[in-house]
Every structure is written in C-alpha cells, then in structure tokens.
Design brief:
Blueprint: E1 19-26, E2 58-65, E3 71-82, E4 89-96
Antiparallel strand pairs: 1-4, 2-3
C-alpha cells in the first residue's frame, strides 16, 4: 500500500481580456475578382475564364492593416462567402486579445 501525503494548494490569477471589433463594409462591385495567382496571365492581366459574368468569387480571408500597410489581424471564414455583385456587404471581425 502506498503512502500518501496530503497537500493543500491554492491558486489565484486575474487576466484582463480585451474584445476588439472592426466593421468592414464592402460596396457592390468591390473585390469581385480573384487574388489567386493562377487567375493571372504572364503579363499580369486577368485570364478570360475568370473575368466573365459567369465568374463569382468567394471570400475566404480578411486581413486588417495599419497605416504603414503592416498586416495586424487575419480573419478566416469557416466557409467561403460569395461576394455579391449588386449588393453591399458588411463583415464584422471580432477577436480577443
């Protein structure tokens, strides 16, 4: 049979958590093209198969930048969101720090 020594332990901690929220408004006809490098020709123009009226891009990620163009926050959607052509869209990015 093992010998057990009783111990008493206590712990106390306090952490402040800040909630941050940024509202991103996307006007109609903004960001309705792909940033995927495979959609570009060698000269830098958009390929024909991704520039017609049938092409509907989806948003998967939002990046928030500061005034010096440094990336501060990356938000990833759980599922890709279609970018509407004729409707404004608002996305709220929220995180704890």
């Amino acid at each position: 049979m093992a010998n057990y020594t009783p111990y008493t332990m206590s712990f106390q901690s306090e952490t402040t958590i800040y909630q941050n929220r940024v509202t991103c408004h996307i006007n109609e006809n903004e960001f309705n093209y792909s940033m995927n490098p495979t959609c570009m020709t060698v000269s830098g123009s958009i390929k024909d198969n991704v520039s017609g009226s049938e092409f509907n891009p989806y948003a998967t990620t939002i990046g928030l930048y500061n005034e010096e163009n440094e990336l501060l926050v990356v938000a990833k959607f759980g599922t890709p969101i279609p970018i509407p052509r004729n409707t404004d869209m608002t996305v709220i990015v929220q995180w704890d720090s």
